[in-house]
Each structure stands twice: as structure tokens, then as C-alpha cells.
Specification:
- By secondary structure, the protein is an alpha+beta fold.
- Strands 1, 2, 3, 4, 5 and 6 form a 6-stranded mixed sheet that branches.
- Strand 1 and strand 2 form a beta hairpin.
Length: 167
């Protein structure tokens, strides 16, 4: 003979389990779609070469210029990602050749000129600049792990682009 309490408990556990699996499946699919959409919106290149090592791996910095010199390549740029302390806050920063990076990534420069970016300047996401009351020309203290403290000038304030991050 069946016990109605045990049957109800088993059914409840089964319903909760199915609900959790359904939630996780929907969450993962939604996250994947959002990431793919932001990459499609922000990256205009055809190919990415990646070491697969994340922040701890890397590729020879001379590879991008060698690839860019090939006649069949319209633009090639390396992209460095690392940690720095910007205005007292530890953040992820990205760096690339300003002459080529804007050819393969859609970065909406809203203020300043991308041609002003260089070794002593920085580009900042619009909302970050607004939150910190920065404008083009603001001097920002930055500490890099390998090169130490530098003062960098805000050269560009840009709009939405998930690949560009905040700096």
C-alpha cells in the first residue's frame, strides 16, 4: 500500500529539482546569448588568436605587427589585459595599438580623440568618467605592477562596449 505523505514528499522534491534544472538551463542560455550579442556588437574582426591563458598567459607582442603586415590583412592589433590601480581602485585595464584597435573594435569615442591615446594617456568608459567627475584632460594616478606609478591623462571618453571594459 502506498503512503500518501511519502508520495507527496517525493513529488515535491522532484518538482523542485526540475524547477532548479530549468532555471539553470535558462540562465546559462541567456548569459551565453548576452555575451555573444555584445561580442557581435563590439568586435568587427574576423579572427581572434588567444593563448587560452587568460590574465596569466600571452602571445608574443610582435605577432600582431607581423600579421598586420600581410597583404591580405586589413588590420591587426594586440590586446593586453592586466591589473592596475586606477585612482586608488584595483581594476582590469586593457591596452592596444590605438592606430589599429579601433579598426577591429567598435568603441564609440564620445569625447576626445583616439589619436591622442598613447603611453601617457587613458581611455575611460562614459559612466566611469561621470561617476569620478573626470573629463578629457583630467590627470589620473595609475599604478602598474611592472612599471609602477604613473600619471595618465584622460584622452578619450567612450560609450557602450562590453569588450573595452572601463579603462
Amino acid at each position: 500500500m502506498r503512503n500518501p505523505k511519502r508520495t507527496a514528499a517525493s513529488a515535491s522534491a522532484l518538482m523542485i529539482g526540475v524547477g532548479v534544472v530549468g532555471f539553470i538551463t535558462i540562465f546559462v542560455a541567456s548569459t551565453k546569448a548576452s555575451i555573444n550579442q555584445s561580442i557581435d556588437r563590439g568586435f568587427t574582426g574576423d579572427m581572434v588568436i588567444d593563448s587560452g591563458g587568460g590574465l596569466s598567459g600571452g602571445i608574443d607582442p610582435g605577432l600582431a605587427p607581423r600579421i598586420g603586415a600581410l597583404p591580405e590583412i586589413a588590420a591587426a592589433s594586440g590586446l593586453q589585459v592586466g591589473l592596475a590601480q586606477v585612482d586608488g581602485t584595483a581594476v582590469i585595464v586593457q591596452a592596444g595599438d590605438p592606430n589599429n584597435i579601433f579598426k577591429i573594435m567598435k568603441i564609440d569615442a564620445q569625447q576626445g580623440a583616439v589619436t591622442d591615446l598613447g603611453a601617457t594617456s587613458i581611455g575611460v568608459y562614459r559612466q566611469t568618467a561621470k561617476d569620478r567627475h573626470w573629463t578629457v584632460g583630467t590627470q589620473v594616478p595609475v599604478i602598474f605592477a611592472e612599471t609602477g606609478r604613473r600619471t595618465m591623462r584622460v584622452a578619450v571618453i567612450y560609450g557602450e562596449n562590453a569588450q573595452a571594459g572601463n579603462y
